[in-house]
Amino acid sequence: MATLASIRTSPNKIEIINQLLLPHTTEWLQIDTIEQAHDAIKTMKIRGAPAIASLAALTFSQYLSRALKADPRPPFLSSPEALKSQVTLLVDFLYTARPTAVNLGAATRRISRKLQASIDAGNDVLSMAQDLVEEGNKVADEDVGRNKEMAKCGGEWLVKVVKSKGGSGEGLNVLTVCNTGSLATSGYGTALGLITYLHETGKLDRAYFTQTAPYHQGSRLTALELQTLKIPSTMIVDTMVGSLFQHHDIHAVAVGADRIARNGDTANKIGTYNAAVLAARHKIPFIVVAPITTVDLDLDDGSKIPIEHRPPLEACIVRGALYPPSLDAQGNKQQAAVMITPEGLNGIYNPSFDVTPAELISAIVTEKGVAVKGADGKFHLSGIV
Ligand code: MRU
């Protein structure tokens, strides 16, 4: 099955697909420095919580690996203390690129933990740095395998739930929000992985997805992924979720997550909460699919999740190819950003994420299995992290 990728690596080279130009132009951008990685994440050339964590970790590994080969070596490789302060500086800087996606924080914490373990073991500074290179690469490598596990667990769980209500467990229709596939991860995806799994096992009738304004992860990216995977799909405008639930047999909503608090409250792309409220009204299972690194046990509930607000201008413009299509000198479809508001409009509210309360969530699927609420009506995520 053909798939898309957000990141490709070869020896000494990291490239990302520029998601600002998809689906009309495929442009690979080489990422050579920590600053470039930070900028690509902040400007959303790459996005999706697991993908940005992977890019941060890979770029960090590349930085250290180049430092180890440099002649002369940079001063921060002269002592464990100097290495620690440089690593702290870099990982803290990378984590500031997007504040809601905790996977980025989990990746940077993992690197810091590895460093501390290496210091405690009394390793010499060069082998410490080498350990960190490997740890950074592992963050990205481990993503695809766990996505497949989550997809299978979540898919099988949904089939069981549908059967328990008297359904056949086949011909399932699943709505998703935003983009959670290969472009948002290192491969296969989270919620879109679950949908892909249902398709591969012959259980899916159709995937529905919202356009996901204002960045349009749905219409630009999920549409392209579903088309590439040849999964039957229908796009809806964000405001049509209620209508869809009233007029179509939807068996589940499956979404990804940027951060899940200890009690299960989940931050995900803006519009997720709306879909959850409507799903509850229509008694449709609402499933969150995310790796364990998305669970933040330090936060008791969703009220503490930092919500990123994007620049107001991003809510005033729509990007895309000119229509009817016209080609530039390189044969690429010409693209434009079009303003859809009067110039100088003030008072624009543009949070990138919202928080869906745990009470509206039926299941949280991670690589460790499917978490559902206990007899007390609450998730107990500390038991699985
Ligand atoms: O702003 P984005 O595009 O990075 O937001 C992405 C989402 O909200 C995804 O649903 C989430 O990161 C999970 S991706 C597997």
Automatic annotation (TrEMBL):
Reactions accelerated catalytically: 5-(methylsulfanyl)-alpha-D-ribose 1-phosphate = 5-(methylsulfanyl)-D-ribulose 1-phosphate
Top-level taxon in the UniProt lineage: Eukaryota
Gene (name only): MRI1
An example Gene Ontology CC term for this record: cytoplasm
InterPro entries named among the record's database cross-references: IF-2B-related, IF-M1Pi, IF_2B-like_C, Initiation_fac_2B_a/b/d, M1Pi_N, NagB/RpiA_transferase-like
Keyword terms, alphabetized: Amino-acid biosynthesis, Cytoplasm, Isomerase, Methionine biosynthesis, Nucleus
Compartments, record wording: Cytoplasm; Nucleus
Annotated site, Transition state stabilizer, chain positions: 178
Protein name: Methylthioribose-1-phosphate isomerase
UniProt EC number: 5.3.1.23
Family (UniProt): Belongs to the eIF-2B alpha/beta/delta subunits family. MtnA subfamily.
